[in-house]
Specification:
Structural class of chain C: mainly alpha
Strand content of chain B: under 5%
Number of domains of chain B: 1
Number of domains of chain C: 1
Order of helices and strands of chain B: HHHHHH
Radius of gyration of chain C: 20 Å
CATH superfamily of chain B: Cytochrome c oxidase, subunit III, four-helix bundle
Oligomer: heterotrimer
Radius of gyration of chain B: 19 Å
Distance between the termini of chain B: 51 Å
Largest sheet of chain B: none
Chains: A mainly alpha (85), B mainly alpha (198), C mainly alpha (244)
Order of helices and strands of chain C: HHHHHHHHHH
Shape of chain B: elongated
Shape of chain C: elongated
Mean pLDDT of chain B: 90
Distance between the termini of chain C: 21 Å
Largest interface: A-B, 40 and 44 residues
Number of helices of chain C: 10
Number of strands of chain B: 0
């Protein structure tokens, strides 16, 4: 049944699942460092899915793929490190 | 459109969805928000206790609904672009209608959220956290409103123009902008709402 | 006026951009002790006079800045003259840029002159009067940011929308627009005493002024200088004028 769904629809299901996972992690404050890092890594994974499959970043010039990927990596690292310091 | 722009790619037209201009504009806008996030983090480090206490006054479930709405709206936008490419104007209009309705839900949710804050006496001047809260979510909100205007324009012109190269380029550009707005929220949501959930 | 004279004037005027940067940085920034400025919203008048206006170079620096500030306007005139459409005419975007350049240059000079008067009178006038004048001037300096936003939107939109011109790349135009829009955070300056939105804060001073200088002004200076040293025919082609 999943194969009958369009690619955007399948990506949407994954995005929903990842959002749910981030909520579960957010409530696990006992493992704070892991939870905080996990929340932002999940956000990065979702953003990567949106960039790759909705924005179709892979189909444009290579330098855009590089620059957007760098932005994603920098923002994620910044947020993880900034919250763990 | 890209062929007339002598600066964008001297060796030939831009490849891939949208125009080089929108990729450039979106990237620069992303840099601006990256700088806002950086300043937020430095301030959070300086006023840690103030920020933590203030974050407990937020309503993550309201923001979660906003997240779900924006993600779903992004999906609808992606479907609309695909429909435009296969010259299906009715499908384009339907998907864009869904994207608009979900965007309107996000906007309504934002008004409810802000209204609740103001009712509790919380304003941008309350403390450092709430200055950022209103600034970052406010700027993002303006982007959402702008995106809604562009989506509305695409929906209104779908019947007459869908199927033309010009329309496809236009809806791709609008789609790219809308997905960028979604990506911003994907980071704003955990940064403001999730890191201090009880 | 013959073409060679016109070119010589343009080339001379183009250098007012770098002269402005060096002159204003040295006078307002270094001599005027504004790297960064004192956070007057968190200081008493006595503190402001004792810690800032006691420095002997402030008055000289500010008078120098009042001179160099207008170099910004001169440069903006050349930029406006360069911003023409395909028919070779200046339009509303050029006028927005010019208006913004005139007002910004005036502000840079005018505010510096007021701070110079504060420095000269600091030991003769009540400290609270000095603080009031100093603060009033900074609020004008920061909170009339729209004059520069208008200029940056004008030149940015021309850069992006005039597809035929190849003087300035599109990314520079988008950057100008983004930085111009980011100035909006300056509205917080009068209301905060600490944090990134104070007059010397990470956002309202370092990021805003830093990106304005390096990502906008330096970039447009580079491309304008490059343009004025082209031959007349190369200039017409780069400007995207319809050839006769």
């Amino acid at each position: 049944m999943l194969r009958k769904l369009s690619l955007p629809a399948r990506i949407w299901l994954i995005l929903m699942a990842l959002t749910g996972l981030s909520i579960v992690l957010a409530e696990q404050l006992g493992l704070r460092a892991v939870a905080v890092a996990g929340i932002f890594l999940i956000a990065a994974a979702k953003a990567e899915l949106v960039m790759r499959h909705y924005m179709e970043l892979g189909l444009t010039e290579r330098y855009w793929l590089i620059m957007y990927s760098i932005w994603l990596a920098v923002v994620t690292m910044m947020l993880v490190i900034g919250h763990l310091l | 459109m890209a062929e007339n722009d002598r600066r964008e790619n001297p060796d030939g037209p831009h490849v891939g969805p949208g125009t080089n201009g929108i990729w450039t504009f979106v990237f620069i806008d992303m840099i601006v928000f990256l700088m806002f996030f950086l300043v937020y983090l430095t301030e959070r480090h300086r006023l840690h206790d103030v920020f933590v206490e203030a974050q407990h006054r937020l309503t993550p479930w309201v923001a979660l609904l906003s997240t779900l709405a924006l993600l779903t709206s992004s999906w609808c936008m992606a479907e609309a672009v695909h429909a435009a490419r296969r010259n299906a104007p009715a499908a384009v209009r339907n998907w864009l209608t869904c994207a608009l309705l979900l965007g309107a839900f996000f906007i309504a949710n934002k008004f409810i959220e802000y209204g609740g804050k103001f009712a509790d006496g919380i304003t941008p001047a309350t403390n450092g956290f709430f200055t950022f809260y209103f600034l970052i979510t406010g700027l993002h909100f303006l982007h959402v409103c702008g995106g809604m205007v562009f989506i509305g324009h695409c929906r209104a012109s779908a019947a007459a123009e869908a199927g033309t190269a010009n329309y496809t380029s236009k809806i791709e550009n609008v789609g790219l902008f809308w997905h960028f707005v979604d990506i911003l929220w994907l980071f704003i949501f955990p940064m403001l709402y999730l890191t201090e959930v009880l | 006026m013959d073409e060679s004279t016109k070119r010589a004037i343009e080339r001379g005027v183009a250098w007012t951009g770098p002269i402005f940067v060096v002159g204003y940085f040295l006078c307002w920034g270094v001599l005027g002790r504004n790297i960064p400025p004192p956070n007057m919203m968190a200081m008493t008048g006595e503190q402001l006079v004792a810690e800032y206006y006691s420095q002997p170079t402030v008055a000289i620096g500010m008078i120098g800045a009042a001179t160099f500030g207008i170099f910004y306007t001169i440069w903006s005139c050349l930029l406006a003259a360069t911003m023409r459409d395909e028919s070779g005419s200046m339009g509303v975007l050029s006028l927005l840029e010019l208006s913004g350049g005139i007002l910004t240059g005036w502000l840079l000079a005018f505010c510096s002159a007021i701070w110079a008067s504060c420095a000269v009178l600091a030991q003769q006038v009540d400290a609270d009067v000095i603080k009031m004048t100093h603060t009033f001037t900074w609020i004008i300096f920061d909170c009339t940011y729209m004059i520069t936003t208008m200029q940056m939107f004008g030149v940015g939109l021309w850069t992006v929308l005039n597809k035929r011109q190849a003087i300035v790349p599109a990314w520079a135009g988008w950057t100008a627009i983004a930085i111009g829009a980011a100035f909006i955070a300056l509205v917080f300056m009068p209301f905060v005493t600490e944090g990134p939105f104070t007059v010397d804060g990470l956002w309202n001073y370092w990021i805003i002024f830093g990106t304005w200088l390096f990502a906008y002004f330096a970039v447009y200076n580079f491309y304008l200088l490059k343009h004025v040293y082209r031959s007349p025919d190369q200039q017409r082609i780069a400007a995207g004028f319809a050839m006769a």
